[in-house]
Design a protein that fits this description.
alpha/beta, disordered N terminus
Length: 293
């Protein structure tokens, strides 16, 4: 694979994964093709759609690369897109989101101004059921070392991130074994190894509220977040980072256990109750070690 490098105008590879989103996809594609930054390639990865997705894509002709694969999940679709791309910079757009025209140009300029930076993301506009809404204070964006701020919830939207290809290669892509919270998992790994710059402009439109969004199913998502936290616990963490991860593990395990108890799911209740006790003991040990050091 040839990666095109340019100190002035690097090629940006844009990956749109999609599955049965024909009603939304055309606008997403159009928002990429309307970017003021000219040096980009657009790759749409169709993850086995059953709707009119092929016809939507074909309407754009040769303006993009279209890949169709058997249904394997959003992580596999994103990873496949990056694998065939050529750009020195990589960006993603969910097929139900939109970019404002300056999004790519502004991020490229920021990374050129700060060549030591490996990744940056933007602020966002939220639209739910067609109505613009204001994010709550807990969703406030930050810049710099974001590992601990990223533990409670996803700060970074996949549609807002831009990263240098060597960083992507280092991270190894999205975890294809996770059917959800794959972005949470990747951002934990990313923010552990490098600062992430915030471009404090609302340059993406996140459109939510439709029935096929996994983010609507919070109890299920917490189980996958627990998996991501358990994975990062095996990484090289500082004592304060380990304590923070364990704190969130205990909290999320208790939430899942309580939900299982209310729904009379005894096996799940037993599993996550035991996990909560296990990580509570580890947390106590870490705190004791910190107190005596």
């Amino acid at each position: 694979m040839v990666v095109l490098l340019s100190t002035s105008q690097p090629l940006v590879s844009v990956i749109i994964p999609t599955f049965d989103r024909a009603a939304w996809l055309g606008e997403a594609i159009a928002s990429v093709l309307a970017q003021t930054y000219p040096h980009l390639e657009l790759i749409v990865v169709d993850d086995g759609s059953h709707d009119a997705t092929p016809e939507v894509v074909q309407a754009f002709g040769q303006a993009l690369t279209y890949i169709r694969q058997a249904h394997a999940g959003v992580s596999a679709a994103r990873n496949r897109g990056v694998a065939v791309s050529r750009g020195a910079l990589v960006a993603f757009l969910d097929s139900d989101d939109l970019w404002l025209p300056r999004k790519v140009a502004a991020q490229v300029a920021l990374l050129q101004q700060q060549p030591q930076a490996q990744a940056c993301y933007t602020d966002e506009i939220w639209v739910r059921h067609g109505v613009r809404v204001n994010p709550r204070q807990i969703h406030q964006k930050h810049s710099g070392w974001l590992f601990e701020p990223s533990l409670p919830r996803c700060i970074i939207s996949p549609s807002s991130i831009m990263l240098r290809r060597p960083l992507w290669d280092q991270l190894g892509g999205f975890d294809e074994s996770l059917p959800a919270c794959e972005d949470y998992d990747l951002w934990l790994r990313l923010t552990l190894c490098t600062p992430v710059l915030l471009l404090p402009e609302r340059l993406i439109v996140k459109r939510g509220g439709h029935a096929d969004q996994l983010s609507r199913c919070v109890p299920v998502l917490d189980q996958y977040r627990i998996t991501a936290l358990e994975k990062i616990l095996t990484a090289s963490l500082s004592p304060s980072q380990r304590q923070a991860v364990l704190t969130h593990l205990v909290r999320k395990c208790r939430i899942v256990a309580l939900g299982a108890q209310k729904r009379q799911h005894e096996t799940r209740w037993a599993t996550y109750s035991a996990k909560a006790q296990h990580y509570q003991q580890q947390l106590a040990d870490v705190r004791q070690a910190a107190a005596t050091s």
